[in-house]
Amino acid sequence: MNLADKYPTFFRWGRFPFRILRLCLRPIFFILVSLMTLGALFIAVENYITGKAWEKYQVEARARGKVFNITQPALPPLADDQNFMMSPLLKPIYTDGKYKEAFESRLSLEVQKNDVPKPFPATGFGAWAKGERVDLSQWAAYFQQPDMFVALKKYDADVAEISSASRKPYSRFSVQYDRPGPVARRVTPETALALLSRIYELRTLAELNAGQNQPALDDAITILRMAQADKDEPSYNGPWFTGDVLRKSTLQVVWEGLAANRWNAAQLAVLQQEMQKIDLFAQYQQVRQTGQNIDFVFIEWLKQQSIANRYKFFKKQWHLNTFSLGDILAVVPDYIWTQAELDVSRHDDEDIAPCVEASLRRINLPAIQAARRASEEAGQRATSASVILHPQRLVDSIVGVASFNSEELYKFAQAQSGLDEAVVACALERFKIVQGDYPATLDELVPQFIAKVPNDVVSGKPLHYQRTANGRYMLAAVGWNEKDNDGKWTATFSDESWAWQYAATK
Hints:
mainly alpha, two-stranded antiparallel ribbon
């Protein structure tokens, strides 16, 4: 007798739960399969609809003149001997991190015995927009050397190489655009270039004080060319780095040389021509467009990766180790990333593009204020707890759909305004050399001394110009707050006015 015959009741009731489970599993399995099928169908439909919307947008945007490159941004190769940034002094920065640190340490102006950099002179930098010259006596005390040429002699070899390399026709950083995956972030030489520009500034001012006008002009032009280190590469930092070098070193040197009447008409014409080559508006447009394309390349790469590869990338590169972020970003379907591409483009069209009217060489302050508000609102949404429940909002925040930095635009506008004023100042000095006095209006400079007088980059109106009682003149823009206070302007992010003027002639 088997056990089933011996204990019939037990086996009859003992199999009951399994019968119930078997009966329930079928509909559960059917429901699960149905839900998965519906989910896959929904994702497929959304992928198709969003993909078509993205394709349609690209066609319409290209018809408006917008350039898209969503595969891999590429630039034509440059020979090292034609590329300023591939000079023997700068090239190793991209290949050897230790060299970068050693080079920047070597450029540090002065260090104490314990290898700690000495603090710079508190008031030794000068401020051209405030009419303040660099106090070389403070720098002499800093170097503990009364002769600035002797104090800066240790940089002669670096200066000679940079001066020669800066005359090369091209300047491009080493971005590895052809690498698979996200576009590689470059190792930036900008700290080294900023230190070099400071060394050149002190050297040029020492030359001006010594009456060495042609060497001073040559060094001033080198600083101008260093400021354009990004000019042949559409990198993120182009107009910002150029603007910083212009505001901090280049325009100070030009202002002091003009204030002291150091250069003759031919030298002024050369300096004016070099400055007219710099167009921060064009750089800004290039950087804005390339920034988008780099985002597109990154998103397209992500869409091609498996869930496992996405998870590994976010965990390693962005340190997103929590379940709420790393896992969600790894499993979000393609249509969410495609929608992020659409959101990036529309944010650029609606919020960012109106901020700079490049064809008019003008900053649009109302548009900047609107873009700043949109960015702040997007930031608040991205930091809310509900972002985990909204994958689209999470992805948009990671991609930086509504990112916007109005302060960077302020620096860019101030640098371009100062550059425009410096160009006009050179033309005014050339006019005075020929005519014996400054013109009554800026229109008298055209066309002999300047092809066209630039307008105020904020207001779009003519620059403010008037001859002053000290035998010189004042040239100014209305500045960031758009208020005309007889040339005495105060900006939102800085106390510097956007004016070009000189003290009384001695």
